Amino acid sequence: MKLLEPGTEVDGFTVLECIHSGGMAHIYRVEYAVGAPNPGFPLAMKIPRMTAGDGAENIVSFEVELQILPTLTGPHVPRFVAAGDLDRIPYLVMEYLTGPTLQHWIDAPQRPDVATIARLGAAMGHAAHSLHQQNVCHLDLKPGNVLFTRDDHAMLLDFGLSCHAHYPDLLAEELRRAVGSPAWIAPEQVVGVRGDPRSDIFAIGVMLYELATGELPFGAPTTQGGLRQRLWMSPAPPRQHRPDLPEWLQEIILRCLEPEAAKRHPSAAHLAFDLANPGQVQITQRGQRTRGPRLRTHFKRWIKAAGMHYQPSPLPTRQIEEVPIVMVAVPHEDVQDATLYSLRQAVARSLGIRPGARLACVTVISPSASSSTDAERSETALHRQHATRLRQWAEGLDLSGHSVSYHVLEAGDVAQALVRYAEGNQVSMMILGAATHGLQTQRFIATVPMRVARDAPCTVILVKQALPFAQLAREYSE
């Protein structure tokens, strides 16, 4: 189909201009024709290319996006407006988003600083997690498909290669080969496994690698053999290209790029959490090395990959529900041993049935507690003191197989601080005491758990205080 001229009307929409002409589709800025209702936001129309030289995947990917886009909600995807069918003229009308794509930062003459890389990466992690919570895997994340309305808020575009767990996978049915953009495609996609949310984590890892170094970790292969190399190959460590990168960032990037999906971050929420809390990232040999693995390591991986049987992916929601971020609010004053004991028991039970879950131990202190003649030094010392107490409290937990981090927050409103932390870190479950939360007066003690339970964006478990140990001992002796 030839390009539409400005002023052309299509089903009640007036074409204003062509804003993108790609290999698979043309995108136009449009508006409703005179007399039609105003949706309150600008509009874009996407029309697939359908000339004789265009491949069948153009039509199939249009049908995929037509199937998936209307089902998506939330702040990380454009709003769907209307669609036209293939019998007359196929098109999708959606919200027109403005802002730079990730390609803007990649093409910049200077590499972004570490803080910017982490902020952009965390935003992509949050956006991908929102998609996975709707049982959709994007499977074509790349710099041109990630747009930023702010550098801490990402929007995902182009769902033509995506997979929805509740709908037929048209691409797998129609195209008997790997589908995806070669530089960003995950190893399991290369062998035909679609629908694993950790494939999107791999793609984010590729983008973070290029953002940090200016290089693509696996190049841009054009053959099936070149694509298959990522089933066993590890790229050069980012610090080999850019020695000033911190070890924690390399740890995160290389974990995203693990050939086996099970060795990557278990969910995009975990990835975003690490990028937002670099001081809590556990550094392994992955983050420390300045050279890639030896030939012997790659040979072993090649042998393993040759005999590996890839299984179909379970529901994305089921995968991410099995590895939640669990938050426990640990009081730091006016608290009895029985309360701390009861919280520890509740956390142990929650982690025991959720292998791979992450635990975030949080305490909230008053801002006035850090005031002194040398405020900055006093604040640092106070935070370290409370972080140490959190670690001591967690010593009784079996944390094998779990990531754990410790956070000291300063706030005058404890309930608000806990809710905001849960919102900002994709917390799935919060555990806190039902009776006391370190506040001074009984009048406020009762309101904190109720306010948290009312406002928190996640499941809240209120733990009743166990009997004091002394009373337990007396009852046992009787």
Automatic annotation (TrEMBL):
SUPFAM superfamilies: Adenine nucleotide alpha hydrolases-like, Protein kinase-like (PK-like). SMART domains: S_TKc. CDD domains: STKc_PknB_like, USP-like. One of its GO terms (molecular function) is ATP binding. Residues 13-276 form the Protein kinase domain. Keywords: ATP-binding, Kinase, Nucleotide-binding, Serine/threonine-protein kinase, Transferase. This is Serine/threonine protein kinase. The keyword ATP-binding applies. The keyword Nucleotide-binding applies. It holds the Pfam family Pkinase.
